[in-house]
Structures are given as C-alpha cells and as structure tokens.
Specification:
By secondary structure, the chain is an alpha+beta fold. It has 2 domains: 12-52, no CATH class; 67-334, Lysozyme, CATH 1.10.530.10. It has 12 helices and 8 strands. The strands form 3 sheets. A 3-stranded antiparallel sheet has the order 3-4-5, with no helix packed on it. Strands 6-8-7 form a 3-stranded antiparallel sheet. Helix 6 runs parallel beside helix 9 (268-281) and helix 7 (187-198) crosses helix 12 (318-328). The termini are far apart.
Length: 336
Amino acid sequence: MFPIKFEFNNRRILSHRFVFEIPVWRRQISFHLLITDRILLTVVVLLTFALLFQGLQPKNITQIGQVVVQGDLGEYENDPLGYSLDYFERQNVGYSANANEALQERFLVKKQLLITKALLEHKVSRLEQLSDSKLIALNRAISQLFIDSVLAKSNVQTHVYDYFTDTSDLRKIETALMEQVKFNIPASIKLSQSALETAYGQRIVGNNYFGIKARNAQSYKTLTTEYYTPEDFEKYRPKVISYEKVERQGRTLYRCKIQDAFTAYQTPWESFRAHSVFLHENLRYSPLFIKGKDFKAWAERIGSSEYGGVGYATSPVYGELLKKIILRYHLHLLDH
C-alpha cells in the first residue's frame, strides 16, 4: 500500500486581469482574478458540506408513534378526501374525456404499438403471458410515454405531477400497469384511489396508500375524516369525535372526525399489492370485476353500499371524485 498525500502550496490555477469600460462615465474598471489550489479546495469543501446539509433537511415528515406521515396538508391534515373535494369545487373542474383529443389519440396509438411489438417479439397473444421482466420493460416504456406525451402537456399542478412521476419510493404508474395485468384492476382506478386517499402523496401514513383498515397486528390508530349523509351520520354517530355540517357538490354532508385503525405496510409496493389482493380475494368486491376495464363503472360501484356500491368507502361522493381525478389527469388512457 502506498500512502496518498495531497499537497497544496498555493499554486496558481487561474490568473487573469479583466478590464471593463463604462461609456457614460468614460472610465475603466479593472480587477484581477486569482484562483489558487487552496481557494479551489475551500470552495469544493464548502459546496460538499452545503449539499450534505441540504440532504439532511426534514421533508415535511412527522412521526406518529412508529408510523411516518409525509406531507403538510394544513387544514386538510386528517382529511385527504376533503382536499380533493374542495379542489374540484373551487376550480369547477369538469371531467370531459374529449379534452385534448388529438393528444390522447396519439398516445393511444403509440401505446398500442408498444404492446403489439412486445407481443409479437415474444410470440404471445396476451400480456399476462409475458414474463415479469418483459412486462416491467413494457410498463416502463408505456409509463414514460404517458408522462412525456400526456401528463407533461396537461397543465398539471406541480405536486400532482411529482406524485405520479416520482420514482424514489415506487414507480407508481408502472406498478399500476403491472397490477392491471396481474389482477385485472384498471390502472386508472388504482392510481386515482391512491391519489385520493393520500392527497397526491401529501399524507401517507404507514405506507398505506389506499386507506385499508387494519385486519392484523401491523396497524396504527390515527385521526381521520369521513363524509356522511344525514342518515349515515346517525348510523355511525357513536364513533364520531367531532363533526360539522357542510355543503359539498349540492349535498348536505357531515364532515366527521373519527379515530380508526389502519394497516401499516413495510413498503409502498406492499401497499399497492395488498390493495390488489384485497379487492381480488374479497367476495364483497367481486361485482367490480364484472365491469371489465370500464373505469366509470368501477368508480360508481366501488363506493358506499348505501348507494348501490360495494362499500369500499362510506362517502357518497367517493366515486365521483375518482372519476374527476381520472379524467382530469387522463389516467383512463393507461387502461387496456
């Protein structure tokens, strides 16, 4: 082993004289720039410490017991559904699927070409016949195509764009596409539910992206918000901590604070897979799969059992919000 030794003896790296003439004053200003190896080292060290310090800064993360809550929703801290309710009400956002028809058509054609090419190359007739590695490659290509040609051109809010495109913890679009093939759950439904339940990633507790209640020891209790009709309010009143009467989308609802137990997951991917298994293996949700890949039918049937749904959520506006999210961000284009 040879020892490594650095020597800095104030050698010149750059030495240059700059002269500027100011016409109005008819004067010249000059200065001499001198950079030595010691000065350069000092700058490098300072920049390194600045980057390390930046990386150690907290990123809106709060600890609740052993559960991490990401994000800062302000008045919507325990009310992700209310966040979307108020957003669509304030913006008066319609959900016409006819918006950007040319853009959507181009994406669908390119997506189908990617799928057809993959099937032909590997001599299979259905996507589920592809190996996982081939599916991952195809899903990644479709995901990037969607981000570049649809999401990036749809005037999407920064935090929404970041939620769908960030890959630091999970490639959400790719995962939704994979689960679509494995469990026949429309990618648009999975992505819109995760966005609605977490306010686009601003509130994720215990890596639970879908608000699935606790059914095992890995659980946590947290304050959450439910929107009830007057009839449901009377039914669930014993577990209500506090409430207020509100008008939402032409309905009189009770905005209720309750405490409930939710499942905690080790990773975001585990949550996405658990959601698929939860829907696929629970007979209660079997009517959803009769609807194929019709996202509107899924959204309308997944809500409250009091209104003809299968009871995934109690809010009577849950399905409407899913449809608005899907069509606002063109998530239905990912279904196949």
